[in-house]
Specification:
heterodimer, A: mainly alpha, two-stranded antiparallel ribbon, B: alpha+beta, SH3 type barrels, 5 strands, snRNP_SmB/NAA38-like (chain B), Sm_dom_euk/arc (chain B), Sm domain-containing protein (chain B)
């Protein structure tokens, strides 16, 4: 190849690196010519390699000078120090004080964009620490404003990294906590607030002085203005103040929200309110900043409010620090988007701070599920998890066993019982902690993990049962004066089962949020949901009954208990609430099956796999964990084979859901989340029963009738929409 | 040259597994250099030191246990930074120098080659 000869020619000009020593008694001998001649003699495709050659290893070699693989490529500058020497990060930024202030505001804006980009999953080295000023902490000390801002920035990043690495929420985005080689913990950064406060104070006085001059009042103190242009003084002071104050409050937020046992939540909430205010002022001051600067046209991704390119950033210098991952090309999100991101983050943190540290486990689960509906990103989720699990305790306060006892509706005395020391109970505690952690991860990761831990929950149930038998004898015997040990065992076993079905139902529901099901698969998904929800309702009911010491329930067939519940015996509202979901799932299963059986709609045939295969693909983890026992594809086929539109059962399902949802309103009048869910259930049930009526009346005469399923009223219960095509 | 090329060449190892041995003296000489320490300088000023593992007809070199050396300044002399990279492929297009760790005698024979070639 030509390049080789070029290399040979150029050889004499490039000196051998002097500081790399050869071996003892050996020298570095130039082999370029030999290699060149040997290559000429090689046949096409021939290689020179030794005995230990492994093609697979060779294929995974990092390719030097490939911009996607070689993070060490020398781009603009050789090093941070060289960049600084060449004037890439001057201090002061300009000798003109006005320009200096403007440029500092640009840096602050760009850092906000970088920080948001980092939170969204890029490495710290390529985002926040692309700032040369942050990389050389001592250099900024002569510039109080810049110095204090850099300090608080580093301290904030450090606090966030700590929270995320403590909670290990970053399993999903492992770039987040990689800080190797970055000056993240710098002496004195922990006192950043004192310095920031002093700078803020000075600027506040400058603003006051400027306002006094404007209103022709006599200036009481003689203060040097922020910069030289009196017309811009007020605007620039204000812009700087909101930037500094935002940083101050945001730092308070991240420090307080992670104080143990939620002790800092109230304070954090106050600071969040301040953050919102300052962020608002920052957004408002954007117009002013734009008007006084000359933004470069055609900058498509503006990372500053002024629209000017910030000084002192170079993301290529640090790309080596992002190893071992290849240096990915990243795009810093725009300043506007960054501001929006922070508003969303603050809103999510506010929800966490407003949480009442519910001691009822079901309440806690509901809170986490609701929180996840906002699709919070890593930082918010890490803070939630940090609050929920600290030192292996719930909220860092309640021991896991006491949480389990409470959730199993056991009396207070149970939580000190020695049974908590036996191995399976300890393991159950760990499973619970894992569950909480998993629930705080992003939903796709979460679904995968939930599917996997189902089996653990099944196994622990068996182990607990065996261990309890050994400890307390026959636990199924029912006597009126049973001892506390037997009581604990029975309660916990029921609760474990209930929890397992709850996980299974969450697993199925998340599939809708992640768009994992195709319309032709809805029928089987709703069928599976139906049987899981029935089991869940049954276990929940059993738990309630056990605690009420109604022990005669054994004789009754479990399934009937829930199904006939509404008629002869008033079920508790929590069970009826689940019953609504059961009805909707059943109704939708039958409706979809009937459409398939009679009108060949949503027939589940694809070119690649059979319905049976898809059934296994979707529910493999549930089937493996025997959730529930004896269920298979054939049970699904059997249930749905005879579904017909003329069959009244499915009307009754939707009607039933509607009726119960209406009745339940009074029971949950002070629970806005549940009220909203009841409204959604009613809407889905109502629309579907109307649609069903339409289809069965018109379907036979009008062949052009189309039925579509949409998620307009509920995130996972579909609404049928009937249209003429 | 395209970045794909080395990969394609490597993948042919299995098929054209040197059915007949290459009689070139140069090739057998290079074979003797395998597993020796090799220092390769590239166009952006960096050096890579590693164990010579493989070379193809196009002159692409694979080094094992490679260490990257880079100057922290544009102007010489400059302090060097180094880091471990593992197995790397240096395309011939960016290779500027190539040295092997060798005895004085070997150096002399290589130098004579150099003179013949130039």
């Amino acid at each position: 190849m030509v390049d080789v000869s070029e290399a040979v020619k150029g050889d004499s000009k490039v000196p051998i690196c002097p500081s790399i020593p050869s071996g003892e008694q050996t020298v570095w001998a130039n082999a370029s010519s030999l290699l060149h001649l040997a290559c000429n003699d090689l046949r096409d495709g021939e290689l020179i390699y030794g005995e230990n050659f492994n093609l697979f290893a060779a294929m995974s070699a990092l390719e030097i000078m490939d911009p996607k693989m070689d993070s060490g490529m020398v781009r603009t500058y050789y090093s941070v120090d060289e960049a600084i020497e060449y004037g890439a990060a001057p201090i002061p930024l300009s000798l003109d004080k006005t320009v200096d202030v403007q440029r500092i505001i640009d840096i602050m804006d760009h850092l906000l964009s970088c920080e948001a980009t980092w939170h969204k999953g890029c490495s710290l080295a390529q985002t926040v620490f692309s700032c040369l000023y942050l990389l050389r902490p001592d250099r900024t000390s002569s510039h109080a404003l810049l110095h204090s801002y850099c300090r608080v920035m580093r301290a904030t990043c450090n606090a966030v990294v700590c929270t995320v690495s403590d909670t290990r929420t970053n399993e999903e985005e492992d770039l987040f906590t990689m800080t190797h080689g970055l000056p993240l913990k710098v002496d004195g950064d922990d006192k950043c607030l004192t310095m920031l406060h002093a700078v803020e104070e000075t600027i506040a006085r400058q603003l006051r002085a400027c306002k006094a001059t404007l209103s022709k009042k006599r200036v009481t103190e003689d203060i040097e203005p922020l910069q030289n242009n009196p017309d811009l003084e007020e605007g620039l002071c204000k812009s700087l103040l909101c930037q500094l104050r935002f940083r101050k409050h945001f730092y308070h937020v991240v420090m307080n929200i992670k104080r143990p046992q939620g002790r800092g939540l109230e304070l954090a909430k106050k600071h969040i309110a301040c953050c919102f205010e300052e962020l608002d002022s920052m957004i408002k001051s954007a117009d002013f900043l734009r008007s006084i600067s000359a933004p470069e046209d055609g900058m498509k991704n503006e990372t500053t409010a002024s629209g000017c390119q910030p000084v002192g950033f170079d993301s290529t210098l640090n790309s080596r620090l992002s190893a071992p991952t290849p240096p990915r090309a990243i795009e810093t999100i725009s300043w506007k988007k960054a501001a929006e991101y922070f508003q969303k983050l603050l809103h999510e943190l506010e929800i966490i701070c407003s949480y009442n540290l519910d001691t009822v486990f079901e309440g806690l689960l509901r809170f986490v599920v609701e929180f996840q509906k906002l699709r919070p990103e890593l930082v918010a989720r890490a803070h939630l998890q940090h609050l929920l699990v600290q030192d292996g305790k719930l909220y860092g306060r309640d021991s896991v066993f006491s949480v389990i006892c409470k959730a199993s509706l056991l009396p207070e005395v149970a939580k000190n019982h020695d049974i908590q020391k036996i191995e399976p109970v300890v393991q159950l505690g760990q499973l619970l902690i894992t569950l909480l952690r998993v629930l705080c991860t992003n939903i796709s990761w979460q679904r995968r993990k939930l599917g996997k831990i189902l089996q653990d929950w099944r196994i622990i149930h068996v182990q607990l049962e065996l261990a309890f038998r050994k400890e307390c004898g026959d636990i199924s015997a029912t006597s009126s004066n049973e001892n506390i040990c037997i009581k604990i065992c029975r309660h916990i076993l029921i609760w474990v089962e209930e929890q397992t079905y709850w996980i299974a139902s969450r697993f199925l529901m998340l599939g809708f949020e992640l768009d994992l099901y195709s319309p032709s698969e809805y029928c089987m998904v709703y069928w599976y949901m139906y049987i899981i929800l029935i089991k869940l309702a049954e276990k929940t009911h059993m738990r309630a009954m056990t605690s009420n010491d109604i022990s005669k329930k054994k004789g009754k067939k479990k399934r009937d208990l829930v199904k006939e519940g509404g008629k002869d015996y008033q079920l508790p509202p929590a069970i009826l609430f689940l019953q609504c979901h059961v009805y909707l799932a059943e109704g939708l299963t039958m409706m979809l099956a009937a459409l398939r059986n009679e009108r060949q709609m949503y027939v589940s045939t694809g070119p690649f796999n059979t319905e049976h295969e898809r059934f296994v693909q979707h529910f493999e983890l549930l089937l493996k964990a025997c959730l529930p026992d004896h269920v298979s594809y054939y049970s699904f086929v059997e249930t749905t084979a005879h579904a017909h539109l003329s069959n009244a059962a499915m009307y009754n399902c939707f009607k039933g859901a509607q009726r119960i949802a209406k009745e339940l309103r009074s029971s949950f009048s002070n629970d806005p989340d549940k009220m909203a869910e009841l409204r959604r259930i009613e809407q889905v049930a109502e629309h579907n029963s109307v649609a069903l009526g339409l289809i069965s009346r018109l379907g036979a005469v009008d062949a052009s009738l189309k039925v579509q399923f949409e998620f307009s009223h509920h995130p996972f219960f579909a609404t049928a929409v009937v249209k003429r095509s | 040259m395209s970045t794909k090329e080395p990969t394609t060449c490597l993948s042919e190892v299995g098929s054209s597994n040197q059915l007949e041995t290459n009689n070139s003296n140069y090739v057998s000489h290079v074979k003797k250099l395998l597993h020796r320490r090799m220092l390769v300088g590239i166009s952006d000023g960096r050096f890579f030191l590693g164990t010579f593992y493989c070379i193809d007809k196009q002159g692409n070199i694979i080094l094992q246990d490679a260490v990257e050396y880079r100057s922290t300044r544009r102007s010489a002399p400059s302090p060097m930074e180094q880091r471990v990279l593992g197995i790397i492929l240096i395309p011939s297009s960016c290779r500027k120098t190539c040295h092997v760790d060798s005895s004085i005698e070997e150096q002399l024979s290589l130098t004579s080659l150099e003179e013949q070639n130039s």
